[in-house]
Specification:
InterPro entries: Precorrin-6x_reduct. The protein is α/β, with parallel strands linked by helices. It has nine helices and eleven strands.
Amino acid sequence: MKMWIIGGTSEGVRLAKTLDPRTYIVSVVTEESLEFLPEEAEVHIGSMDKNGMVDFIKDHDICAVIDMSHPFAKIVSKEGRGAAEICAIPYYRHLRPLGEGGDILFKDYASCAEYISKHKGTFYFTTGSKHSDLFQSARGENRHIYRIIPSEKSIHILREAGVEMKDMVAMLGPFDYAMNYALFKHAEADYLVTKNSGEGSGFYEKINVAKDLNMTSLVISTEGEEGYDFDELSAITERISNEILLSLLHQ
């Protein structure tokens, strides 16, 4: 019997490091995430749909789903919640407090892309590679620069979207004020395109630099969810972990 931690965020790593590795299994999408997790942790690599998640829960005797995925990973959370309901086990969603700020707010990627298609300049994207095809379709004569994690998959997605190597910045965060300042200034960017990924995600460090460099910040928001903050989830998982350890003693 184990907890299933849906990982992929710094909070997921932080939570895993506080728990006994015998009491959980972590799932991540790519191998790059392995270097941040405890060496002794059991890790599943690869994405799953809801049916795959149901099988995963049954195969690993999962007693609770702890969703530590990114605030914008809506499909993952929806499928994880659905799989937990099918298997009649608890589902707990971690929520970051949303940040405040930015010049122009958008409800989704499509509305942001529409805005970009009607304006001129150099746009600096810190939204990852996933929606680069949408933004590239709105590029026109503008320059689009994408800061992504240094993974083969992310670079491949950008190449498939038609992004040239000179417009890729493959670096691993976190990025503080000074690093963001240097990168944005070197790019001579007019616009920052970012997600409101919540406090602790580097959101404010980007927004503040953009303001000081007279850039316009385009912020994509996420719909509100119900869930637990880190301290609440830490207490919940500690209780479940202790129950699992107690059951192991009686085996």
